[in-house]
Structure formats: structure tokens, C-alpha cells
Amino acid sequence: MKILILGFYGVGKTTALKDYPNAVDLTDVLDRSYDEHPSLERFYQYWNDDKYEIVMADPWWTDVIIKTGISFYTVIPDVDRKDEFFENYRSRFSLGLGGGDDQFCDYVGDCWSGWIDFYKYKLPCMECIILKKNEWMKDALDHIIKIESKKMRIVFYIHHLAFGGAERVTTVIANELVKRGHNVDIIYCVDFKSGYPLNKKINLHYVPMRVLPLRKKIKELKPDVCVSILPHNSFRLMKALIGLHIPQVMCDHQNVQYNSTKSGKFIRRYIYRFADVVTVLTKNDQKYIDKWCHNTVVMYNPLSFPRLQQDMGTSKTVLCVGRLGAYNKAKGFDRIIKIWGKIAHKHPEWMLIIAGSGNQEDYEYYNNLINEENVENSIKLIGFKPNIQDWMATSSIFALPSREEGFPCVLTEAMSQKCACVAFEIYGNINEILTDGYDGYVVKDGDLDAFQEKLEFLMDNEEERKRIADNAYESVLRFSPEKIADQWEEMLLNLVKK
User: Same domain for 227 and 145?
Assistant: First the structure.
């Protein structure tokens, strides 16, 4: 692994270069001074001709490297070492070897703490390494090589990235892995425009929904590990990987017991056993899949947007989110409308808001239900809202009346926006998210009376709503993208090591 080094006076560079023959110092070759910015053409010439893999640049060079778009590391001594650093800097200046005079060092010294914060938290580098006491450039190189040795090339295979829970989770995990320096490619087989934000470093590849073109693309990318999303994509990728000796993770993003076609059941029973790892959403799913294969890992879905940072003020609103369906009533909106019909007249100041897309037939069906319950003045069907985070942030209560869910992202999202939540247990899956009576209320499946009781209790008790919402806001941290990505990274690294 060849490392191109720019700058770094007074941090033990000479000694480090002796220990790392693949680390090459081009500081003097590129010859930067106060008045001269080395041309990017000259930098690219060395970068491409000598095939460097890593750039290590001190703060004085970072503005040049940022212009190239190449990932880099920077190193800066800790604030309590600035005097030690400047002594060397002044010595170099007195000998005409660069560095700085007393006035320059005094100015930089006054700004040192602010510079460290800037380089550590705001600079778009791979990592800003702070040299602590008795640490030198050799220690920084050791650290960088340790990081680089863990880098993987990861391929995700999915049908599209336009919409849906599995698609959103895939983009969140891919973005987190790229932040950690891994190379990520996403292959998709249905040519829809991505509906979720993606890091610019993620490479997208459209490949038709056939095995041979997929195999050709995999051989071209040469990944360390492949991750397939949903059963049918997993089966196709498994066939494409035959004989390539590349580990495969098959990801299931559904409630495996109650949301399966005949072909889906076949894949889960007879194909998943050939995966290196199968990820499922809940412990219930794991227990079910383990009847046929014993290579399962529970991977909860990460939060897809940040926790509430500023209180926006809550209204007397109960919010439900999900796709409307006149025939597939998985989201249970017919249930919540019936419940609302029994309590709306007792709480005229409250509104029930249902957000989610649907066709004309869906809207007609639910509007008829609303009219039957005589609650047309206190229920609104607002359609799909891209800013659903804002709706959650201003709602007091979030209700999940679903009949079927795998791992409902909308529930953890509502928790992150300080909603007090009430949900059916959905075969026990919700118990892995909410602790009944602590950070939400969990109701036995199908018990509409109990759901109504918990919902009314929250509507009538502001202090209880606040207690539940505050607890939920803290407990949902275990689903942060960083923590879920930690689990993904560890799992993938272990597969690659094997």
C-alpha cells in the first residue's frame, strides 16, 4: 500500500519514512510556498504514475487535496504539544528550511484549539489523527494502515432504490459504510431513479434482471463480499456467484412468517441455507428461519433521519403513517378509524391524521369508513408526505394499528421525534422495539378495546405523554445508523477474514 505524504515537519517524519518504505514524501518535489499553489496537474502526475493508494496531508496542504476529490488523512499534534511542535518549526525557519518565525508561531498557537476542532469535525477527510503525548508520525502511519487493512469492497444487490423500507435501509447502511472508508457498489435491476440520498462515493450499476449479466458485473467489480436484498434477489445473486468464492449475505426485510409468497417460502426453506449469513429483522423471524438454516443474524433497521434537535411544539394530533390499501389492510387503518369513531366525540380538540399514498379506490374506501363513523371533521387523509419527519415532530401521539409488520421504521422514527407511541404487538415483533409502559404502550393483537383504552389514556394525560415520549427519545438511540452500521461492519469483516 503506497502512501503519498505532504508536509508534516516536526512530528518525526524522517524516522517514520525509514520504517515505511512504501510511504513517499513529495513535499519538496511539489514545492509549496506561501505564494504558490502547486498545480493539480503536477499532483495528478505523481498520483497516477506511481499508483499511490493513500494521501496523508498536513493541514497546510489540505486545501490542495480537497480540490482533487481524493480521500485523505490529516495529522495534527494535540493542543498541549504546540510548544514542542513550534520549537522545531522555529529551528527550521532559522536554518532556511521552511517553518515559521516567532510572530507566525504565536498567531497559529492562539488558534490551535480552534484548528483542531475544524480539522477533526469539519474537514472532509477520512480522519483527522490527533497526536497525543509521545506519539509521532510513525504512530499515525500505524493507525492509518490498521484502518486501511479493514477496508472492504462491498456490493449490494437490490431491485431498485426508488421507494420502500428495504430500499431506504439499504441506502442508510451503504452511506454509513462509505463514511468508514469502505468501497461500496450498488447493483440494481429495475431502472428507477433513486428516491433516497446517496453518498457521491457510492457507485451505481444498472444490470438487467438476468444471471449472466449480473455474474459478469460481479467479476468486473471483484468485491470482497456481496449483500442481496429480499429473497428473489438473493436467489438470483446466489446463482451468479457460483464458483467465484465470494461470501454472500442474504437480507430479509419482511415478516418471514406472515408475509410470503409460495416462491418466497421456497427460497427461505431451501435457498437461505446456502448463504454465508442470513439477516432477519427480529428474533421472532430468526426463530422461524432457524428451522431450516442456522446461519441467521438479527439486524434491526436503523433510523433513517436524525433525532429531534429542536422542540417544534406539539399539537393535539394522533398520527398514523403507511400506505393505504383497500384490499390489503395490513396497516390496519380500518381499525384506527373504528376506534376513533368511539372516542372522537369525547375529545373534540384532537385530530387523527393518516399519512400515506394510495389510489382513488383506496381513498374512496377509507372516506366511506370515516363517514360511517361520523368522524369526517376529525380525521384527515393527507396522502404521502416527503417531510413526514416534520409531521411527527409536531404530533403528540403516534399510533401503529398494523396487522402485519416486519420491523416498522415508522415506529422508531416517531420515537426519535418524541411521539408517545401505542402499537399492536404484531406477533411479538413490537416488543423488540417498545417496552410496554416505559417508552410506549404495546397492545395484544386484535384487541381494539385495549388499544382504545391506551390511546385515550395518553390523550387525557399530558404528563404521561411527555414521560413516554422522553423515554422513547432515549431508548431509540440503540437503532442509530452508527450503531447498526457497527454491527454490519463487524459481520462483514468477519466474513471477509474467513
Answer: no
Q: How far apart are CA 188 and CA 204, in angstroms?
A: 8
Whether the CB-CB separation of 386 and 359 falls below 8 Å is answered with no
- pLDDT tens figures, 164-202: 778 889 999 999 998 888 999 999 988 877 777 888 889
- Name the residue range of residue 109's domain: 3-149
Count of domains observed in the chain: 3
Closest CA to 464 of 443, 444, 439, 442: 439
Q: Is residue 61 one of the residues assigned to a domain?
A: yes
Q: What is the mean pLDDT of each run of 10 residues along the chain (498 residues)?
A: 72 78 76 53 73 74 74 74 57 46 50 57 67 80 79 93 83 91 91 79 92 96 95 95 95 78 85 93 90 91 87 86 84 95 94 92 93 94 90 95 89 95 92 95 95 96 95 95 93 90
Structural domain contains residue 310? no
CB 395 within 8 A of CB 354: no
Q: Is the pTM of this model over 0.85?
A: no
CA distance 10 to 108: 15
Residue 307 lies in a domain: no
Domain assignment present for residue 308? The answer is no
State how far the Cα of 325 lies from the Cα of 321, in Å rounded to an integer.
12
3 state SS of 268: helix
DSSP assignment string, 51-95: T--EEEE-GGGHHHHHHHT--EEEEEE-GGGHHHHHHHHHHHHHT
pLDDT in tens, 469-492: 999 999 999 999 999 999 999 999
Here the CATH number for the domain that contains residue 222 is: 3.40.50.2000
Q: Which three cell numbers stand for residue 346?
A: 369525547
Same structural domain, 445 and 489: no
Query: Both 325 and 473 in a single domain?
Result: yes
| Co-location of 116 and 165 in the same domain | no
Task: Please tell me whether residues 463 and 322 are part of one structural domain.
Answer: yes
Identify residue 475 by its one-letter amino acid code.
S
> According to the model, what pLDDT value does residue 113 have?
57
190 and 115 in a single domain? The answer is no
Burial of residue 421, with CB atoms counted within 10 A of its CB: 0-12 exposed, 13-18 middle, 19 or more buried: buried
pLDDT digits (tens, 9 = 90+) for 380-419: 999 988 889 999 999 999 999 998 888 898 999 999 999 9
